[in-house]
Amino acid sequence: MVLDMGTLYAVAAIASAVAGVLHLIPWLTGRLAPWAAWWGLGHIAVGGSSLMVAIFDVKSVAMPVFIPNILSVIGYAAVLQGVRVFERPQARAAPLLILVAIAAVPLFLSRDPQAFAGRIAYLCAVRACCDLAVAYVAVRMAQRQGLQNAWLMAFLFGATVPLFVGRAWLAATGRIGSTLLGPADDLASWLAASAIAFIVFRGFSLLLLDAERSHRSLADLACRDALTGALNRMGLAQLRQRLDGQVAVMMIDVDRFKALNDVEGHVVGDTALRLLAETGQMVLGQRGSLVRTGGDEFLGVMPRLSHEEARALADAIELRFDQEIGRCTALAPRPTLSIGLAEGAIADGFERLIAQADQAMYAVKRMRQGNRRAA
């Protein structure tokens, strides 16, 4: 089967340009974050480079040969930066721009139209490095952020790495052929055609990731209390489905919360609730989740923790809240926490554990009220 390389380069140019425009326009209208600008401009640059190759044979003196080559390097680097910014919005562009400038120097100096094999080997090596870096960032996002579509991106970019490496090796050993365009059926051309096939499909992979991330953010918002960021009752229901075995729960209530609202206002009361949520989740960490069940009541859910371990965490939450609440209010006596604990098997009934923790919390509250009256 004979390949028409000129047509394939034109297809790659059109696909990259379309992907670039469809990312750049939403960024310009404020619908996408800055990662879309890098990704869009990168694909437009790659498409422009492929279009130049499709229209002008790079061996021709009609066009300086370094222009499409340098444009290709800039495009691939911009695509890589787009993925980096998508993963971490604060990712700096300066180090990558320095590497691009360094990588462009040999291409700028190599102007002999007949020495195109060496430039192809160099460009394929640069492209392989960029695609490998994108695949690495995609795997990292899949593992750290749980984005399942990142595995697809890793595959689409990782698959072209051996193709570019193989083409670079063929070019370096003088087996690239006598022309880039026109009919061809050698191994180097098939490697190029295979890489172009992946390039055509992967231009929209970051949009899939953005859609997945947005969907997860909306789902997370639906499961969290708007004021404190703790889980709400819907979040508790989802958490309940993942629980098995032993679990410890703590019911937390803010003492004198009504007095705080009445004397200093609801703004201070809201601040106290946010402080409790931040304190509770900080102490629990990965060992448990905090749920706002209503008003000033919170529920701590700690899978596979013993009663003693749960008690230590409850004491830590109470101590830290007592240390920090003074910054929110001058009310005397200051608000404190009453915490009740229960521990048992989920199979025996999660609601029963919550009821036991609630009873224990009210027992602590009655004991403290009795002590204050006695005092």
The number of helical segments is 14
Strand order of the largest sheet: 4-5-3-6
Q: Work out the number of β strands.
A: 6
CATH fold assignment of the largest domain: Rhopdopsin 7-helix transmembrane proteins
Unreliable residue runs? none
Write down the CATH class of the largest domain.
Mainly Alpha
Order of helices and strands: EHHHHHHHEHHHEHHEEHEH
Average pLDDT taken over every residue: 88
Task: Output the radius of gyration.
Answer: 30 Å
Oligomer: single chain
| Shape-level CATH architecture of the largest domain | Up-down Bundle
Instruction: Please report which band the strand proportion falls in: under 5%, 5-15%, 15-25%, 25-35%, 35-45% or over 45%.
Output: 5-15%
What is the total number of structural domains? 2
CA-CA gap between termini: 96 Å
Morphology call = elongated
Class by helix and strand content? alpha+beta
Catalytic activity: 2 GTP = 3',3'-c-di-GMP + 2 diphosphate
Keywords: Membrane, Transmembrane, Transmembrane helix
Enzyme class: transferase
InterPro entries: Diguanylate_Cyclase, GGDEF_dom, Nucleotide_cyclase, Rev_trsase/Diguanyl_cyclase
